[in-house]
Write a structure and sequence with these properties.
With 268 residues, the chain is of the alpha+beta class. It is built from three helices and eight strands; from the N terminus they run E-E-E-H-H-H-E-E-E-E-E.
């Protein structure tokens, strides 16, 4: 397949993604991140090497959508209740601050908080400016578990190096590189009080602008990204991330199984 390289946005974040009040748990989804189909040969382009733990593997259940559970309590009848009791916010999963790398952090200890964390972390390590070797390790240290930050950063650097070779560039930071992605939906594969495994779904475009080589020219595709977060030191921290298939497309029935986000704030 063409490089499974792009996890998320190609410009600096500050659109804060928060979970909606309900979520579909979809069985049988392969973990991972956005990929683009390619019938020809391509490099080995896993974005983040999964940690060897059973919790990062997708459950072997059939691909069916289970009943939609409520992530957070509904407001009370008087309208004064909070949907996200853990944070006191009327917006479920809302982070409380932005860190030094422009990444939303400080999530409520709820399933909605875990979903929001995964989506924003996925965006953060998909931004090309955050992936330069002088920055990537500090970026992961700001949002991942201390024992996993360096592994995740090293995986990104190695894959970016391989993909630069594939695209015949000195660096993926080149202005000739098309590198744009958007997270548009999610599902919760599993949730426990202190651990969550989330599947993110969206679209990505990647390639070399104006390239005459069809293997290098920009292409777009829908796909999934996996995220595992654990509750640590008062926040959801990234434990692991991995690539997934380039389906479902937005015209496929399976796409209806992903839930929408609430978008809070504005980009820059």
């Amino acid at each position: 397949m063409l490089p499974r390289l792009m996890e998320s946005v190609a410009r600096r974040l500050i659109i804060i993604i928060v979970a909606t009040g309900t979520v579909s748990v979809i069985g049988g989804l392969v973990i991972g991140r956005y990929v683009i189909p390619d019938r020809g040969a391509g490099p080995d382009t896993t974005s983040v090497a999964p940690a060897p733990t059973p919790s990062t593997a997708p459950p072997p259940s059939p691909p069916a959508v289970s009943p939609t559970p409520t992530l957070v309590p509904k407001p009370d009848s008087a309208g004064g209740g909070s949907p996200d009791a853990a944070s006191g916010s009327q917006v479920p999963g809302l982070p409380t601050r932005i860190n030094e790398f422009g990444i939303p952090v400080g999530y409520p200890h709820t399933a909605a908080g875990a979903v929001s964390a995964c989506a924003n972390y996925d965006k953060a390590y998909g931004i090309r400016e955050n992936r330069v070797p002088s920055r990537i390790k500090d970026v992961f240290r700001s949002m991942a578990l201390p024992e996993d930050a360096e592994r995740l950063a090293n995986s990104i650097m190695e894959i970016d190096k391989q993909n630069a070779i594939y695209f015949k560039l000195n660096s993926l930071q080149s202005p000739t590189m098309n590198w744009i992605g958007r997270v548009t939906g999610y599902s919760v594969r599993s949730y426990q009080e202190d651990e969550a495994n989330i599947t993110l779904w969206g679209i990505v475009g990647i390639g070399i602008y104006d390239s005459k080589d069809p293997k290098l020219a920009p292409r777009e595709g829908w796909g999934t990204d996996n995220c595992q977060v654990v509750w640590n030191s008062g926040d959801w921290k990234l434990k692991d991330a991995g690539d997934g298939p380039w389906t479902p497309g937005i015209t496929e029935r399976a796409a209806e199984g992903f839930r929408d986000f609430l978008l809070v704030g504005a980009g820059q």
